[in-house]
Write a structure and sequence with these properties.
The chain has 10 helices and 12 strands. With about 300 residues, the chain is an alpha+beta fold.
């Protein structure tokens, strides 16, 4: 293990201690891991540029307390502290510079809600079992999913990157309609988040990092919520992450939005006429919203095109 040095700054020494803690933990030297984590915390405390590193320390400490010392209540405290610290260290307003899209399943009961709110779900509701393993698989992360009832996540594709990297527009991607748009029976909403304010202390919107190897030591946010397999890199996904300790179940939560945030609505090829009519009614006093029907191209049945309504 590398030794700290008084010639180095607090951040450099903290990183050394954090690295030593990870090494000791992997070698099952739990006492040394805890000592190194405590030292790292003492170096990082008070340095706003080290918040993400500090959050990793809190996560490792919580993991040791739960798995080694069987202290569920104390570990829950540090798991929560890890999430909040990582969110504070990662908050940026980069999302305001982009437009985003979201495929959703719709019916007459939920359509009004979908058009007026953003839906955030608990990580346990993700459709991919390898998405956020730190929160849904105790062998890869936390021991008890109930510790994280306060987490909610909203997933979005970014319009800018998709359009610039491909000739195929996101709303004309048949595979996305099949996988995310309820087999073409749903809708796709395009949002302009430049006026969306996520000012609450424990909320952020960040870009997913795609990695070849899963690494649980980065903590709940870094390892689970803002990291995915490189197999999904083409999705260019961004996520809203919300943490509210007062939530006691894993039910979805919602963020109310102003209609001005919606720029376009794309209606799926097999979406019902009833849904289409309701969307057109919604748009009548909101002329800035473009509404389009997605259909098979007249020139090539294998391709999709849009008809403006």
């Amino acid at each position: 293990m590398e030794q700290t040095n008084w010639n180095k700054g607090n951040r450099e020494n903290g990183i050394i201690c954090l690295s030593n803690a990870k090494e000791a933990y992997h070698n099952n030297d739990h006492q040394s891991a805890m000592e190194c984590v405590e030292d790292a915390i003492s170096y990082f405390i008070g340095d706003n540029s080290s918040l993400c590193d500090l959050s990793q320390c809190y996560y490792i400490k919580a993991h040791l307390l739960r798995h080694i010392y069987d202290s569920k209540s104390e570990s829950k405290y540090f798991y929560g502290k890890s999430i909040k610290t990582h969110i504070l260290g990662s908050k940026q307003n980069d999302y305001k510079n982009h437009k985003f899209y979201k495929y959703v399943s719709v019916n007459m009961d939920n359509l009004v809600s979908i058009l007026n709110r953003l839906r955030l779900i608990h990580p346990s509701a993700f459709n991919d079992p390898m998405d956020c393993p730190i929160a849904i698989n105790s062998n890869n992360g936390i021991p008890d999913i109930d510790l994280f009832n306060g987490l909610r996540v909203g997933c979005f594709g970014v319009v800018d990157d998709i359009v610039s990297n491909s000739d195929r527009k996101y709303y004309l991607d048949a595979s996305k309609w099949s996988y995310y748009g309820n087999f073409h029976k749903g809708i796709c909403i395009e949002y302009d988040f430049s006026t969306l304010d996520l000012n609450e202390e424990c909320v952020l919107m960040g870009k997913i990092k795609y990695e070849k190897q899963y690494n649980p030591t980065k903590g709940i946010v870094g390892s689970g919520l803002l990291t995915k397999s490189k197999d999904y890199e083409i999705e260019n996904e961004w996520r809203i992450i919300w943490y509210d300790e007062s939530l006691s179940t894993n039910e979805p939560m919602f963020i109310d939005i102003h209609p001005a945030i919606i720029t376009n609505i794309y209606i799926g090829y097999k979406c019902s006429d009833e849904i289409q009519e309701q969307i057109l009614q919604f748009r009548r006093d909101k002329p800035h919203i473009g509404v389009y029907k997605v259909q098979s191209s007249k020139d090539n049945f294998y391709q999709l095109e849009t008809l403006k309504l």
